[in-house]
Amino acid sequence: MDKIDFMNGQIKALVNFANALIKSHPSPAILRHHFETKARAAPHAPQGLSLSEAYIDGMADIDRQLAVALEHAIASRDQHDPQPD
């Protein structure tokens, strides 16, 4: 159980870092485009392991969390930088 808790802590730390990057990125819309391209790619199994349903579900869950963070960053940027008519 300690190994799973450790890995969950690592994942949370990486998601926190990704959120900080998203919020500070100068162009969240371009970042979203690149993220969506990577997220649509077929997942690759870690070396020597097969892809389990749980692995794919976990990856999809984090992808959704990051997509929401990107949408919030874009909306926030749009509110602060009004578009010209």
Write a structural description.
The chain is 75% helix and 0% strand. With 85 residues, it is mainly alpha-helical. It has one domain (2-39, 53-79). Helix 1 (2-24) runs parallel beside helix 3 and helix 2 packs antiparallel against helix 3 (53-80).
What's the structural blueprint in terms of helices and strands?
Layout: H1 2-24, H2 28-40, H3 53-80
Brief summary of the model shown:
Helices cover 75% and strands 0% of the residues.
List keywords for this structure.
globular; 85 residues
> Could you list the spans in which at least 5 consecutive residues all have pLDDT below 50?
none
Radius of gyration: 16 Å
Please write the string of helix (H) and strand (E) elements. Answer: HHH
The number of E-state strands comes to: 0
Number of helices: 3
Summed up, the domain count is 1
**Biggest sheet, open or closed, and with what strands and sense?**
none
Q: What percentage of amino acids are in beta strands?
A: under 5%
Q: What's the mean pLDDT score?
A: 87
Shape: globular
Our measurement of the CA-to-CA distance between the termini, rounded to an integer number of angstroms, reads 56 Å
Q: Helix- and strand-based class?
A: mainly alpha
* Helicity level: over 70%
